[in-house]
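Dear colleague,

Following up on Tuesday's group meeting, I ran the structure prediction for the two-component complex that the binding team flagged. I've pasted the input sequences exactly as they went in, so you can double-check that nothing got truncated or mislabelled along the way. The structure tokens for the whole assembly follow below. Feel free to forward this to whoever is handling the docking comparison.

Inputs:
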Amino acid sequence: MLDTLLLSRIQFAANISFHILFPTITIALGWVLLFFRVRYNSTGDARWMEAYGFWVKVFALSFAMGVVSGITMSFQFGTNWPGFMEIVGNIAGPLLAYEIMTAFFLEAVFLGIMLFGFSRVPRWLHTSATFLVAFGTTMSTFWIIVLNSWMHTPQGFEMIDGVAHATDWWAIIFNPSMPYRFFHMMLASFLTVSFLIAGVSAFRWLIGGRTSGVRVAMRTAIFTAALLIPVQILVGDMHGLNTKEYQPAKVAAMEGVWETERGVPLLLFALPDEEARENNFEIGIPGLASFILTHEWDGEVKGLNEFVAEDGTPLHPRVAPVFWSFRVMVGTGMLMLLASWAAVFLMLRKRSDGMGRRGVEGLPKPFLFGLVAMTFSGWLATLAGWYTTEIGRQPWLVQGVMTTKEAVADVPPTMVLSSLIAYLAVYVILLGAYISVIFYLARRASRGQSIEPRLPQSEDAQVRVVPAE
Amino acid sequence: MYTFGDPTQWLPFVFAGLMGLSILIYVVLDGFDLGVGVLFPFADDEEKDAMIASIGPFWDANETWLVLAVGLLLVAFPSAHGEILTALYAPVAIMLIGLILRGVAFEFRVKAPAAYKRLWNNAFFIGSLMTSLSQGFMLGLYVMGLDWTLGHVAFACLTAVFLTVGYSFIGATWVIHKNSDALQLKAVDWAKGGIWGLILGVGAVSLATPYVSPRIFEKWFDFPQVLWLAPLPVVSGLLIVWLWTMLRRMPFANDHWNWLPFVAATLLWTTAYGGMAYSFYPYVVPEKITIYEAASAPESLFIILIGSLFVLPAIVGYTLLSYWIFRGKAHELRYD
């Protein structure tokens, strides 16, 4: 049962899922590093530089992973989805070109200066390089989100002989879902990085690496998370309302609503059955979905049955993956809210001697273990969110303009299968190596507190060990 | 009718030029990165670190020229992009996996536990080798018109080897420039050993292209073109002779002019590349689709062109800044 379309979709999903993990880290980590750098410049306090010194290595590693997995994407448009550029290339092309020209070169060149130029360039130039790298990653996010959002809510074009031609670039760039998606993704990145820093710092704290650098990193991470998660929930809600307006079929799948109804319950659990077109084992809170989506308890929500062609072909996505991805994303978000607010509460408690706040010492051991377990929770939420929106757009590739099927290349399925297996093998190995190296670096940095290891010269680029306080 | 001539005529030409330029910059800049990777097994552990240090701050930006090149193919000539990349599906997949291995190895080899360093050194070599071989293979198949016949594949296998050796040659000239003492001497030997790959590669492509297409044959050998094209092979020949005499005399006293072999190698690549570009113009898919047929709508190309006029000079500017900051001999690759 080898099918080129399905295999190509799985391959693209595998590539883009693997890829997005790393930009999700570098987008926000760049700004966090700039924050550390600027704090060091203004206070001269070495702990900020210690935090910078550790996290810049994680940044470099994540950046390399992001770059190489991103190149794969740009080639896949041609190798697997030539129809995409043939039909909407006049719109997608300039957006991609601007991403390469305004973002990729900027980040790549200044990353070299940021990583290796500390003692070669003046302080202002090193700080500027850090800024330009962060700015570059954000520009890259902007352009790719513009293109992705346009695929969800296309406008500003006309079709001539089956090919899209741009008529209004302003309308294309500021298409209806772009602002929501952009801020949703930026916040997702900041939350992912916050929990990454919190998790790794908790790990270092638990194994005895209680340096002041770990302390400031942990504090920065926890307060950022606690501050941004409510904003993210608000932006997510607005994004959902926008989706309801422009892609009602996706919202129906997210909520598991088959028939158009009023007073729709918010389903906490259900097993959607695509054949019978109904849900089994529903558990829900009455009226809540209507309230969230329409801000009225008996508001009307369009059901999936509205999106079926006359011959019975569904014009909506498969329900179960969208329904469940959405719940994983929201569930992880709620857990993040709970964890970050609890951490703030614990850290802000007064010390027993009345001298100031407890800070990181205020976090009990089991809580720290919990933070370690949540190190990559941002990845989970981000992937689940992207699955919701991308699978939710199916069967369309560009909503209402072209279907995914129209874009696929006529490559033999065995060929796609071979490349898919090769990519998957590489990705599994690299993901394992990436995670283990992050914790290896954390262990090294922590051990350095008591013993200054004598590194062979060739390992000089490894973590610089900071002496004990 | 138009202020600046017909945009459906000059826009595709400009974009073909930009794309060609990106590919040329890519094969020179990432060519030396990949060459260093291909030469990795011939170096001992300390030399490996020194070689990495000489490309560490640059490789990422160098690779971005490939993204720009394929990006321009994608945005300016969408139908050709699909045609070329689906025909080259397998070598592209191999190249991408090679690029992934090579790129992450830079980081992992110094960050993973020391016991794994050898493993990541191997990944760096294998990744560079896979990338070079598949690029050479793609070059050969492209020259042959993108048809998978036995003869064409055999020719592509040859160009794969030639390009890989050619990359190792330009990589060696970069090592000569960025390193000193024993490693520099070793690199001179590598360069002497690798120059034949370049000569055979250029020769094979030059001989094969007119043979494959009578159109290209006429373009080169018809009177009077042959007169003003004649300098091209002559210049290439002179560059090779110059390179060879230089390499025999290296290292120069006080290490002066250590960058000359790299510059000469770059000039040689450029002449060879220029010849190829002349042969294939106006086709982007050999003998099938011209740049004018494959081009995107003029209004889309125009909006990219306006951006490039501002952005490309800036890119060139800060790239030069980076090479200037990291000028001179490569030191250990340190974060401080």
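The radius of gyration of chain B is 20 Å.

Cheers,
M.
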